[in-house]
Give the backbone structure.
Amino acid sequence: MSDKITDMDVFFNPKSIAIIGASETFKFGYTMTNYLLNSNFKTYPVNINKDIIFGHKVFKNINEIPDDIELAIIVVKNENVLQVVKDSVKKEVKGIIIETAGFAETSIEKLVNIQKEIEIIAKNSNVRIIGPNCVGITNFDNKFTTAEIDFNQSIEGGTISVIAQSGVLGNIFVEWSASQNIGFSKTITLGNKVDVDEIDMLEYLENDPNTNVITVYLEGVKRGPKLVEILKKLTKPVLILKNGRSEIGSKAIKSHTGSIAGNDKIYDAIFKQYSGIYRVNNFYEMFNIAQVFATQPLPKGKNIAIITSSGSLGILACDEIERLGLKLAVLNDSSIQEMKSISPNWTSLKNPVDLGPSLFMTFSQSLKAILNDEGVDALLHIFAVPQRPIKEFSLPITPHLKDLRNLSTKLKKPVITCVFGSRWVVEYFLKHSYKYKIPIMAQISHAIKALKFMYDFGQSNKNINKNIEI
Amino acid sequence: MSDKITDMDVFFNPKSIAIIGASETFKFGYTMTNYLLNSNFKTYPVNINKDIIFGHKVFKNINEIPDDIELAIIVVKNENVLQVVKDSVKKEVKGIIIETAGFAETSIEKLVNIQKEIEIIAKNSNVRIIGPNCVGITNFDNKFTTAEIDFNQSIEGGTISVIAQSGVLGNIFVEWSASQNIGFSKTITLGNKVDVDEIDMLEYLENDPNTNVITVYLEGVKRGPKLVEILKKLTKPVLILKNGRSEIGSKAIKSHTGSIAGNDKIYDAIFKQYSGIYRVNNFYEMFNIAQVFATQPLPKGKNIAIITSSGSLGILACDEIERLGLKLAVLNDSSIQEMKSISPNWTSLKNPVDLGPSLFMTFSQSLKAILNDEGVDALLHIFAVPQRPIKEFSLPITPHLKDLRNLSTKLKKPVITCVFGSRWVVEYFLKHSYKYKIPIMAQISHAIKALKFMYDFGQSNKNINKNIEI
């Protein structure tokens, strides 16, 4: 990979765009073509076989476009990609995103060689190239995307950015995040990485004012020492999912993006060496933890309070707290008395505070009592309730969320809610809690791990530069 | 706990029922009262303060009911429970479910002593008692329930049964399972276990023709040697979630149901000693794996094939396969050729078979080719797709599921689908796959663990006696 420094910004905020291989019939590239041609981004379709696409004049070649082009997006067949790259270089574009697959990952000599030629072009010209075998960039801040997604108004952004290899996943992340109210700033897929790699993007995201948390899915790294150097320098929290831990997984990586997985133990050692870098086990864990980093204040200590409607789930949380070296907060007598005054005699008010079904009546006040307790650094709220009382009797479950958020922000104590229940209950919570930036997740283990990473991050010399107001 | 043997069936199929503390206003017991009084189960409401509930005559005392009563369900206040138990014994009921909480789990001497007195009554009479501090039984086969759930037509049953302690969770399981299409036969919550315990219920479920898989959430066991004895004898697969692994978790168990957690290492050793007993880490894992046991044939070997639209997720699955000691199947050349004839040149057709976006066109035929391959014992199908092509272009994704199920049953090879995508995509799949009994889950690690447990179970001398036809 080249060490030349070029501003990555052309990939996120291009002033003019050509889509080469633009399509108005259903095939790869259709959704992006449709979206960009109907957007405010100045976009020119290029296709040798078409005259009009979605009502726009089509150019046979990028060099026929009577305008400067900053970014070329390539979705033509793999055998035509090399020529189109050469055309784009001639046009003096600043960036190219090659989305087409079918190169080094196939291990077919002819296709591997095409990729090598493109790599040489990237080295010997001023152009920066993302791909091939990816879906490029989605920027939630200005709603620019080269991915095959329906990027409409309903997808809310946030401050988490993701770097990944896989094209298909790049599309799914965006749709999935919309379902889960995970707020992204940028999603980036790099594919086979002939030129631009995760190191370029880590540097970009470190300086991006809209990114507070960086998540990385890694298959293999070509510039190892450079990666170590940048990891050392980063001031933002980074969550890394690295697969290929196994021998058969490493072999599969070769067929996926033509990358070499490398020795997993070395990666593990590197990730552990630098504060602020955390390894996770799967995508759900990655994004659940990222959500906590993105929205919650850092805990000042290790003392976790649990408030739950299910004693069993409270105990599962205790097991995780001990396993990760955190502590169960010892509640002040006055906090317990405050809760006792409003609770039935059968509730268990030691930490974990188990309100059982009385939770419907008492949890709002109990949450505040606990959060105000000086012995508490962070609060896990486990909400396992049947839907009937909420749905049929309209029991007020979420009106207190704004107060809770204000208190949490004021006291600098993170709050996480774990919800276990019917789909209706989960969606009810997601809908109401999102605007108050209280992260919702299904897995208790992810919540506790998030608090552990947040605590560690707070102990490091790093800082999250973010606005956690509502 | 008493060793006397009484038929547990009275709890699942009572011929006549009294609800003591019946309510028609919103409080604990309301939903059950409403449901049972309007059902075909012969139910009598008892409440000292009421004359009519939901149009039914109310009795002041169970002994005023001019009919034999088999099952008494108690939801009165904790201080009134002892007298009501005595009344029920006088009425010669066969079973009592005490749902009221506020006994040994409070550590308040007076309340602990009430529980002890109830325990003595159970020992010295012929009645069997479940609880206190639980929601009792839900039987999906005859739609009988003592839980606070809206048990309407829309909840489909299945062959998984669950034994748990916690009352709140007992309600949630049912609602959650309906959302996820997890098919239950019986759900049982035991609370503080003054009499009936998990050993009684394991014996019952072992002999229950509608239960194929037993799942147990365990906090503490009072009859340790008996548990070991029954675990040794069971022929059905058992998945156990035991919490209180940690010191602080063990303490929390005491406040939850007054149980003693016991030394976790001893449990772990016992669970590992007997084939067919598998320990899991959380409820999602428990029910996802149970679903596979309940619906899929046992794999004959360790060779797993993966077909995926996302190379990255395929690699994560490879890592799990190696970690759990399974093998990645080596595909026959003829299977690869069969797929090659219908696939674009850029797809990767070695196992894991990565079809990328071409999956929309080719996966139905590819799934069959792989399942027919003699080197394949089980199939993991990772479905990560954007929703737009399915929703807007109505791409046919699920019509082949019936063929797939038939082939899987015929060849005795299990199939699991992991879906990663928007909520719409997940629900689309759930809706279509349920009738063909192909388990759907989000977590790849659960799918691989299910295949590992299924393989181990197949190697044991145990057998699942089940009908796996559609």
